[in-house]
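On clarity, I found the account of how folds are encoded harder to follow than it need be. Since the whole study asks how a given chain folds, the encoding of that fold should be made plain. For the editor and my fellow referees, an illustration may be useful. An entry of this sort, consisting of the sequence and the corresponding backbone structure tokens, reads as follows:

:::
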Amino acid sequence: MGRGVVDVDRELAQRVEALGFELVSVDWAGSRNRPVLRLRVDRPDAAVGEGVTADDCATVSRGLEPWLDGMAAMPERYVLEVSSPGVERPLVRPRDWDRFKGEEVVVKGHEVLADRATRLEAELLGLVEGDEPAARLRLQDGKEVTVRLSDIKAAHLLFRWR
């Protein structure tokens, strides 16, 4: 969507953090005249399964609406949707790779990862920092591999029904 809301994107994370939450992802949908702004938020350092509530989402929504209403770049008729990142929370920032150490994850690559496949299920062992940050993973067969974050197209926590 061609949009003149770059200013909104720039400041959104700071505004969400000022409300006591972490911005996980931002998706724009809708039209130029009626954009839909979809935010997924989390509690910083919350354990898996202890994420945000409906009341938390309402708090973020109410906290952002006055600011969004005052933005010249935002049309008068926009829709703001705030939700939790869900049980299969995406891993989007380098710090997520340490925060969720020990959890099962799904990692999808732009191409084949670790000479295996474009999709891996593994235990997350953490972030390897350096010139090119990488994720350390223990695959289902027990083998440990390192995958550069730049080679990862998408990753999320793996939820298993019990």
